[in-house]
From TrEMBL:
Location(s), subcellular: Cytoplasm; Nucleus
GO BP annotations, alphabetical order: proteasome-mediated ubiquitin-dependent protein catabolic process
Subunit structure as annotated in this protein's UniProt entry: Component of the proteasome complex. Component of the 20S core complex of the 26S proteasome. The 26S proteasome is composed of a core protease (CP), known as the 20S proteasome, capped at one or both ends by the 19S regulatory particle (RP/PA700). The 20S proteasome core is composed of 28 subunits that are arranged in four stacked rings, resulting in a barrel-shaped structure. The two end rings are each formed by seven alpha subunits, and the two central rings are each formed by seven beta subunits. The catalytic chamber with the active sites is on the inside of the barrel.
Primary localization class, coarse: cytoplasm
PANTHER family, sorted: PROTEASOME SUBUNIT ALPHA/BETA
Entry-linked Pfam families: Proteasome (PF00227)
Source species taxonomy: Eukaryota, Viridiplantae, Streptophyta, Embryophyta, Tracheophyta
The name this protein goes by in its record: Proteasome subunit beta
SUPFAM superfamilies to which the protein is assigned, alphabetical: N-terminal nucleophile aminohydrolases (Ntn hydrolases)
Role noted for this protein: Non-catalytic component of the proteasome, a multicatalytic proteinase complex which is characterized by its ability to cleave peptides with Arg, Phe, Tyr, Leu, and Glu adjacent to the leaving group at neutral or slightly basic pH. The proteasome has an ATP-dependent proteolytic activity.
Keywords: Cytoplasm, Nucleus, Proteasome
Family that this chain belongs to: Belongs to the peptidase T1B family.
Length: 205
């Protein structure tokens, strides 16, 4: 029951993902970080088969770093999105990756941006988007409450509304979510949303 969603606000973009690593009816982890910090000003949120997700996102991260190392300048968010789309399109005709991506970034010239890239190499620049079963509910909440030029506080409030809706509607809802943000100050983790707090050990008798 994966869910990755994101939106663009006033001077920033954010990506939210569940942190559950699930196979069939088993939950292997509840703290799996599915949002990769691609470089200093880019985030890559991914959903899909866990092996494909990890392998492909790491492959993109290393290629973005290689480009910067060779040329001395970083890729723009649009260029990184097109690189990712090209790699998925090439793999689609050989050995496809079942991975869906939301790429968020901040560029000095164009400001924040968010790109939708699915497993069949569809690429769109968007203001809000989502993947996974939770997308049915997060997209409907964003359709109702999202508007351009949102502040960070308003965007986080909308994220919380989406998380509450996902937890209440899905039969098997992911318990924990991670929120990451990118703006002129860089890409970083913003907060976690945990349904059960870790007490740090067994309760005392």
């Amino acid at each position: 029951m994966e869910c990755v969603f994101g939106l663009v606000g006033d001077g920033f973009a954010l990506v939210v993902a569940d942190t559950s690593a699930v196979h069939s009816i088993l939950v292997h982890k509840s703290n799996e970080d599915k949002i990769m910090v691609l470089d200093s000003h880019k985030l890559l949120g991914a959903s899909g088969e866990s092996g494909d997700r990890v392998q492909f996102t790491e492959y993109i991260q290393k290629n973005v770093a290689l480009y910067q190392f060779r040329n001395g300048i970083p890729l723009t968010t649009a260029a990184a999105a097109n690189l990712t789309r090209g790699e998925l399109a090439t793999a689609l005709r050989k050995n496809p990756y079942f991975v869906n991506i939301l790429m968020a970034g901040y560029d000095k010239e164009t400001g924040p941006s968010l790109y939708y890239i699915d497993y069949i190499a569809t690429l769109h620049k968007i203001d809000k988007g989502a993947f996974g079963y939770g997308s049915y509910f997060s997209l409907s909440m964003m359709d109702r409450h999202y508007h351009s030029g949102m502040t960070v506080e308003a965007a986080i409030d909308l994220v919380d509304k989406c998380i509450v809706e996902i937890r209440s509607r899905l039969v098997v809802a992911p318990p924990n979510f991670v929120i990451k943000i990118v703006d002129k100050d860089g890409a970083r983790e913003y907060a976690w949303r945990e349904s059960v707090k870790d007490t740090g050990g067994a309760p005392k008798a």
